[in-house]
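User: My collaborator and I are trying to settle a disagreement about how two of our proteins should look. Neither of us wants to argue from intuition anymore, so we agreed to look at predicted structures for both before our next call. Could you fold the first one, then the second, and keep them clearly separated?

Assistant: That sounds like a sensible way to settle it. I'll keep them separate. The first protein:
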Amino acid sequence: MPQASRAYKRSTVTVLLAAMFAVTVNLVAVRAAGADESLEVVLPAALGKDACGRLLLFAELPNGAQNPEAVDASYLIPAAVEVAGQDVRSFGPEHRVTIDLDREVTPKRFSELPPGEYQIQAVLDPDGDYARYGRDAGDIVSKVTVVRLPLHAGSLVALDHVVPHTDPWNPAGASPEERERLSAARPQLTDFEIDSPTLSSYFGRRVTIQAWVLVPKRYVSSGSTTWPVVYFLGVGGSNYAQNLELAGLVAQMTSAPEVPQMMWVFLNYSTKRERRSSSIV
C-alpha cells in the first residue's frame, strides 16, 4: 500500500476517533446537565419518630439579607421563589426522605436553574393546607440554608423546629404599633362563632363559621340604636388571625370623628377549626 494511502487512512481513523470522543463527551455533558435534582430531607429524632404530609422546598437567589428567617412563596411575585413539592407518607427507619426537585415544581425544574448559590428552606405541612394558610402552627420547618446548584450527591437539609401556636392578640413578628392597635381595638371586638346547617349537611359533620365582629365605640348591646353593617368577605387566603389584624386596622381608621360609625363583620370562610383566642371579649 502506498505510503500516502496509509497516512490518509491513519488520519481518517484519527479524525473519526476524535469525533466519536467529542460526541461522547457532549452526550455526557448533556446527561449531566439534564440530570434530575434531588435533596435528602432529614427528620431529627427530637421532632418525633415519624411524620407525614406535604413536603415543600423553597429556593431563591440571595437577596442581600443576612440570615433571613424564612424563604417563602410570594403571591405578588410568584416567579421569585422556586418551589418543589412531594407527598410524604413516612420518613422511614432512617428518618429521611428524598424530594425530587424536578417533578412537582413551579415555576421551573431545579435542574434548569442557573448554577450558583441559592437560599433554601424545607417545610413539612402535615395538614396539607399550605396553599390557603401558608406557614402555620404545626408545620415543621428547617433553617434557611445556602446551597450551590447543581447539588452534589448526598446533599441534605434537616428539619429544625415546629411552628408554635401563637396568641392572635400578640402575633409573632408584629411591630409595637400593630400590637398597640390590636390592644386599642380589643374592647370593640367579639370573637363570634355559629353553626352552619348547610355546610354541616354537606360535610356530614358539625361545621361552624367564625367571624370577628367590630362594633362602634358608642355601641350598647341593650340599646335601641341601629347601625349599618358591613360584611367583609376578604379573599380566598384570609383566615382567623389575618381577619383580626384587619379588624384592628379598620378600628383605627374608623375612630376619626368624621368617619360614619357602623358594625363590621369579618368572615372566616375556612371550614377548618382554627385555634381561637384565649379570651373571647
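The second protein, kept apart from the first:
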Amino acid sequence: MRDNDLFQLALGITSPWLVAASAFDAANKRLDIELDFVAGERFYPEIEGVLADLAKIAIPIVATQGKRGAARPYSFSYAKRIVREVRRRAGLAEHITMTACRHGGMTELGDAELTEQGVMSLLGHRTPDAARGYVKMTDAQRLGAARKRRAWVMELEHFRNESQNEPRMRESK
C-alpha cells in the first residue's frame, strides 16, 4: 500500500477528495499532506439530486410556480430554508448554506468563463463591484486566461509573418 493511500484511509478522506502527495521531514518532525480532488467529480451529489428533481419552469435555476400564474424565482429567505432542509436531510455540514451555494455556483461559472455581466444578471446585482466577491479566482480561470493570451500571441505572430511575406509595392521616385 502506498503512503498516500494509507494516509487517506487513516484520515477518513473519501471521494472526491484524495491525498495527492505526502512528505515527511524527520529532522524537523514535520509531515506535509497535500489534498486534491478528482477532476469532474461532484462534491455534493445529494444537493445536485434534489435540484435535478425540481421542475424546470423558468429561466432561473430555481423557481416556483406562482399562485397568480407566472413562475417566479424563489425569494432568498425561502431558498435559504430549502438549502437548510436539504442539508439536514442529507446529513451535510453546517457550512453548506445558501450563500455558500451562491458563491460556489458563481465560481464554477467563472471557471466556465461566464462574463461579469452574466454574473451580475444571475445574482441580480446592478454593479460589477457587488458581483465580483462571488467569483473566486481559481487556477481554472488563470489557465483559461493563459490559453487566451497564448492564442492571441500566436495570432499576432501569424499576422506578422504573413505581412512580411507579402510583396511590397515600390515607391515611385
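Some points you might bring to the call about the second protein. The chain has a mean pLDDT of 80. The radius of gyration is 25 Å.
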